[in-house]
Amino acid sequence: MTPVDDPDTGPLSQLVPRPARYGGRRKTGSNEATMSGHGYGTSMTHDEIAQFLYEHGIGVLSLSRNGHSYGIPVSYGYDGDRSRCILDLGFAPESKKETFLETTEQSCLTVYEWQSPTDWRSVVMTGDLRELDDGLEADLEQRYYEHADDIEIAVFDRPPEMIELQWFEFSIEELSGRTSRST
């Protein structure tokens, strides 16, 4: 990890809190009815959430370290039978992602779809993320590739042979979904 990447001594550690958006006042306008009272959209049912997670294979995994957060795009395969997601994560030498994984007590995985301000869905999951030391059973690897939107290893700035791939299990402890759509 370079000094720039270190959340304890890097540039992020020097940030001063900014004033609240809109001068501490709540934004008003055409979305006032949507933003007031009960929050955005409506709750999704368990079946709607499961279908959404099976249909989408990418999300944002949020990790933390010493009060700093780190969100990374990931591919996942949803396993609703066991309330978990399977992830295939790649690590370069001195990986920031790996450093954050080592200190994160509870992770958050967010999956969303946005078409317009009146057409969107999102699912937020919190849970434990653990490395699958024994690899992955054949049926789970097949499920991963059926549902995940996997990326090519060439997206990293290092040769593919320098990237260590490892399977992880995200055990879902809390799950919620919201949608702009009427059910």
From TrEMBL:
Residues 1-40 are annotated as: Disordered. Pfam families: Pyridox_ox_2 (PF12900). It comes from the Archaea. Transmembrane segments: none annotated. This is Pyridoxamine 5'-phosphate oxidase family protein. It comes from Natronorubrum bangense JCM 10635.
